[in-house]
Specification:
- This protein has 237 residues and is an alpha+beta fold.
- 50% of the residues lie in helices and 7% in strands.
- The chain has 10 helices and 5 strands; from the N terminus they run αααααααβββααβαβ.
- Strands 1, 2, 3, 4 and 5 form a 5-stranded mixed beta sheet that branches.
- α5 (98-108) runs parallel beside α7 (134-143) and α6 (120-128) runs antiparallel to α7 (134-143).
- The radius of gyration is 20 Å and the shape is globular.
- It starts with 13 loop residues before the first helix and ends with a strand.
- The model has no long low-confidence stretch (mean pLDDT 92).
């Protein structure tokens, strides 16, 4: 951060020096960090090869199981790491285990995988422990297609023959918005109204240097399906 020109005017400020001292963490567990980073590498290895699931489906599923078992072993030993233990891979706070949670929760939404256990309590507790960012986690939870709904997955744009639309949000009744906001409180999140304000600000200011904890989703549909979805949604402007 000291190399970024946006912060140079603050370098002599007492509060900046205090910030540096508090965040100069030299106790990162590098071995654990490498293990966590390797989760993402293994996850993507065969998914990116030509043919992907069609050719390497069994191998991909096996790797997914190995990756998840490793995460379970960390949880069982009460050793699941957050930023304090392994730092972050980018300013967005991404971690190597993000992709594992993404693909697992995605799988549990499929009818053929209905026997796969939902991991809601694991993810919620990781948020409450400060290990995982809440809106990102809410996105995973909503992908399970279970009870949990916090409105994160209800904001999306659509890809129609490779052309992306503007972003839309679902229409909320008074009762539904109340329930969504209660779920958001459970996850220590801002209200849905405040979240929408941050989301719209980000859309309208693509070059902003502010980073908000928001999640963008894109669904590939044909024009007919898009028109069906659009009836129950409001365009964000």
């Amino acid at each position: 951060m000291n190399r970024l020109e946006e912060f140079q005017t603050y370098h002599s400020n007492r509060k900046w020096k205090q910030f540096e001292a508090e965040n100069n963490n030299s106790n990162i567990n590098k071995e654990l960090r490498n293990n966590i980073d390797s989760l993402h590498i293994r996850d993507q290895l065969f998914r990116k090869k030509e043919g992907s699931y069609k050719v390497y489906g069994d191998t991909i599923h096996k790797i997914d199981s190995i990756n998840l078992y490793y995460i379970y072993s960390l949880l069982y030993a009460n050793n699941f790491p957050g930023e304090d233990e392994i730092g972050v891979s980018s300013i967005t706070g991404n971690q190597g285990y993000d992709i594992v949670f993404h693909h697992y929760t995605q799988k549990t939404s499929l009818v053929e995988n209905k026997r796969m256990p939902k991991i809601t309590p694991i993810l919620v507790n990781l948020v409450l422990q400060g290990k995982v960012m809440p809106n990102k986690c809410s996105h995973w939870l909503e992908m399970q297609n279970g009870e949990f709904k916090a409105g994160v997955f209800g904001i999306s744009n659509f890809s129609i023959n490779g052309i992306k639309t503007n972003y839309y949000r679902e229409k909320y009744s008074y009762e539904r918005k109340l329930i969504l906001d209660e779920y958001r409180k459970w996850m220590c999140l801002e209200s849905l109204e405040d979240y929408l304000e941050k989301f719209i600000f980000t859309l309208n200011n693509p070059s902003t240097k502010y980073r908000f904890d928001i999640e963008k989703s894109t669904f590939e549909v044909d024009e007919q399906m898009f028109n069906i979805f659009k009836k129950n949604m409001i365009e964000l402007k």
